[in-house]
Write the structure tokens for this entry.
Amino acid sequence: MPRKPKQARSKATVEAIVEAGFICVAENGLAGTTTRHIAEKAGISVGSLYEYFKDKQQVYEAMTRHFIDKTVQTLEPMIPQLVELDIADAIERIFSEFKEILSANDDRYLRVAHQALMFDAQLYLDPLSKSLSDLIMQYLMHHPELLRVRNIKVMSYILINGSIFTVLRHMRDPNPPITFEQLARGLADMIDHYVAYELSVVDQSE
């Protein structure tokens, strides 16, 4: 059974394995990456890798947690600012930060996320969806008037999952027809207009 890292050296080894995993997936894809690839890139033996991870799937899961932690660490400090913005500006700001995360370190996370869509979207993107759902809920808590929107859960689901796929597709397109800024503003305006319409319908029915 793989052991949990406790000492600083062990933790450094695990971090090196996860780092190597990102590099290998970028080079070989999720399906094409092997534990041997990861071990060689991390500068350790395959046996040493198996001391911490049962198989490459566990390495991928650790990579996913690393990505989600990075996303949360980036977005959480922004929450006090985000909740003060109107919905369109808040959404646009989130997209902008999400782009920065994905494109960091030579598109490391973007490459993995793109591979995940083709390999196992549920395993790798569901945690990201949950993280963004939590962020939306915090925004709604500061703007309770938005809870009057009908089917708010449905809209949140569409916004999060649709946006993730749209952003990833745009960023992987070598020659996109629009800029990322135009994409972000378009998605933000679409949500803003929908919310305004729904609130007007609710007002008329009261």
User: Anything to note?
Assistant: The mean pLDDT is 86. The domain at 1-54 is CATH 1.10.10.60 (Arc Repressor Mutant, subunit A). DSSP finds nine helices and no strands in the chain.
